[in-house]
Amino acid sequence: MTSDSSWPLALDWLFAQQRFGIHPGLDRVRALLARLDNPQAAFQTVLVGGTNGKGSVASSLAAMLGAAGIRAGLFTSPHLTRFTERFVVAGQELPEAQVAAALARVRPAAEAEGASFFEIVTALGALLFAQTGVQVAVMEVGLGGRLDATNALDPGLSVITTVGLDHTAILGDTPQAIAAEKAGILRAGRPAVTGVDENLLPLLRATGADLWALGAEAQASVTAHGWAGATVTLQSPAGEVNLRTPLLGAHGAHNAALAALAAQRLGLSPGAIVRGAAATHWPGRLEAVPWQGRRVLLDGAHNPDGARALVQAVRALGVDRLPLVFGAAEDKDLAGVAAALAPLASEVILTRARLSPRAADPAGLAALFPGVPCTVTASPAEALAALAARRADLALVCGSLYLLGEVRPLLLGEAAEGRERWQ
């Protein structure tokens, strides 16, 4: 990665904005974009919202666009190891120097508007995509949808993956309430696709969006190939496409199918969809990493629905029980996640993301795994040291994406960013 001396200072300022928290609303980010001459007008936007699967769908769709010869931007959050992971153009993470230069332009406008961390990052992504000649930007929604900063962009296509209980203090405590927030990214009369449960479809259709739903307008059949992913056959009003995805688990195949449906709505050819699906790589989501002669699965399941999908996927790989390294944010439904994971665990090594102030104290997590042997460690490095002493050929690290962001570079021997992480 290219870098210059301005980069650490730029990140110091930006990461300091995290302490001011999340402030839902679109007025500030719209004003910020206006001060930057509305860079989002230079490209077409696809918004990808939902509770789980957003990143996988967005990454798959961006790969399909690239396979079609379209210069695609991919905006995702949070990052795992490097802040620049959030900005990918034509399949390549943008260099630090380029991001730093764009951030230097965004900063005075952001300070004038009192913009929040995620509002700044969203505007930064729009500016970078405009500067780099992006034709279609696939933007992963941060939180909810209706009041998320990404919703200040005007999508030509909207995607809602799934709806489950997460961020209930902000979005509501029922699937219907959360679905109503997610539905805010839909636009009347414009194309949209979704993979939500059928009981939530009426709420989404009430927006007037031209909605195609998996299980209704479109059907997907899946043949699993274990560690090699799955074959998906998608049938929709746009025709049939047969693709192979490396994404693991039934939920990975579902995400690939939804991305393919979105690609069809953008007019992509079956060939581009097939090539893009096969080329998809999404780190930290059922990712198998070789380490010390064994395999470590990394997955960011941090809510009960995600944990249940993870367990189903691991069981489908022929694994009955395995050691878990687990840590999560204290504001999550930790009891629900642990209850889903416990039947899979031969033992649990509890830890916390060292750089996340939101991380739950690992000592308090042991009670959530009754009957399962637990070891408490103070850091990801200590957790991996404990895991190294075990003889298992396969282990799973799961929970917070911030935990994965600290574990993954340790496994791969890469440098870590080393900054406090809130968002």
Q: Which band does the percent of strand residues land in? A: 15-25%
Largest sheet: 8 strands, mixed
In order across it, which strands form the biggest sheet? 4-3-2-5-1-6-7-8
Classified in CATH, the superfamily of the largest domain is Mur-like, catalytic domain
State the low-pLDDT regions, or none: none
What would the principal axes of the Cα set say about the shape?
globular
Top-tier CATH class of the largest domain: Alpha Beta
How many DSSP H or I helices? 14
List keywords for this structure.
423 residues; alpha/beta; UDP-N-acetylmuramoyl-L-alanine:D-glutamate ligase; Protein-Tyrosine Phosphatase, Chain A; eight-stranded mixed sheet; 14 helices; 21% strand; ATP-binding; ligase
